[in-house]
UniProtKB/TrEMBL annotation:
It comes from the Bacteria. InterPro entries: MFS_trans_sf, TM_effector. PANTHER family: INTEGRAL MEMBRANE EFFLUX PROTEIN-RELATED, MAJOR FACILITATOR SUPERFAMILY ASSOCIATED DOMAIN-CONTAINING PROTEIN. It is found in: Cell membrane. Coiled coil: none annotated. Pfam families: MFS_3. GO terms for cellular component: plasma membrane. The keyword Cell cycle does not apply. This is Major facilitator superfamily (MFS) profile domain-containing protein. The lineage of its organism: Bacteria, Bacillati, Actinomycetota, Actinomycetes, Kitasatosporales. The chain crosses the membrane at residues 21-47, 53-76, 97-127, 175-195, 229-252. It is a multi-pass membrane protein. Keywords: Cell membrane, Membrane, Transmembrane, Transmembrane helix, Transport. SUPFAM superfamilies: MFS general substrate transporter.
Length: 263
């Protein structure tokens, strides 16, 4: 009776090609996203001088994230996760390019920015669960906590670096933050093409109607007190920080600080 061949140890994250591609692509993408995010209210104020219009654009991002986030888990379970991630990156790149062209041509409008903001918010809400659900297929179980921690650190670094850079780039040129966002999402899209994400086995039961599945998920969240409190806190904090950035920018500009130097 022959002995079973030894099981090779799992590939560490530092040599995990697919995880490094995913992590690096999203480091770029999140930097570009937050670069554009801080530039949205600056651009609206520069074009209209209206704090209310800036609030509309920023509120659209938050609302789109909230609305798209409701069925996001069901969609991620029902459809190909890599295709969802690629679609999100492509949508953000195309919408950012459209805004770059409009600003360059002097044809940007508030309603155009509202549409782009909705695409940004919805894409971010769909991408995050698709990426999180893909991690177990890319890394070994013992490396999963480290991978999640690295993703969290990446998100924080992207937010800090993008927010700090966005105001400076806006001072260079109104279209520049959105151009950076378009480039980073395009590069991320290309990198994602090379991520080898195994196809999932479909369950025999399949996935029920999206509306019913989403409602079932909401009921579960509402029944679980700790999850419910966590979700409510996350929503409130997101709304607070969106409003906080806007208030700081509006106050700074009302005191004569030129656009791009108020952040």
């Amino acid at each position: 009776m022959t002995a079973a061949p030894p099981v090779s140890p799992p590939v560490p994250l530092s040599r995990n090609r697919d995880y490094r591609l995913l992590w690096g692509s999203q480091a770029l993408s999140e930097f570009g996203f937050h670069t554009a995010l801080i530039a949205f209210p600056l651009l609206v104020l520069a074009l209209t001088g209206s704090g209310a219009a800036s609030g509309l654009v920023m509120g659209t991002i938050a609302a789109a994230q909230m609305v798209a986030g409701l069925p996001a888990g069901v969609l991620v379970d029902a459809y190909d996760r890599k295709a969802i991630m690629l679609g999100c990156e492509a949508a953000q790149a195309v919408s950012a390019v459209s805004l770059v062209a409009a600003v360059w041509a002097g044809a940007a409008t508030v309603w155009h920015m509202v549409v782009v903001a909705a695409v940004f918010g919805a894409s971010a809400a769909l991408f995050e669960p698709a990426e999180s659900a893909s991690l177990p297929a890319l890394v070994a179980d013992e490396h999963l906590p480290t991978a999640v921690a690295m993703n969290t650190a990446r998100a924080s670094m992207g937010q800090l670096a993008g927010t700090a850079t966005g105001g400076f780039l806006f001072a260079v040129g109104r279209f520049v933050p959105f151009l950076v966002d378009a480039v980073t999402h395009t590069l991320s899209f290309v990198a994602l093409l090379f991520v080898r994400l195994p196809r999932r086995e479909r369950s025999a039961d399949g996935v029920g109607p999206l509306g019913r599945e989403a409602l079932a998920g909401l009921r579960w969240v509402w029944r679980e007190r700790r999850i419910r409190v966590t979700v409510v806190c996350a929503v409130v904090l997101n709304l607070f920080f969106s409003a906080f950035y806007l208030v700081v920018i509006v106050l700074a500009e009302s005191r004569g600080c030129p656009p791009g130097r108020s952040v």
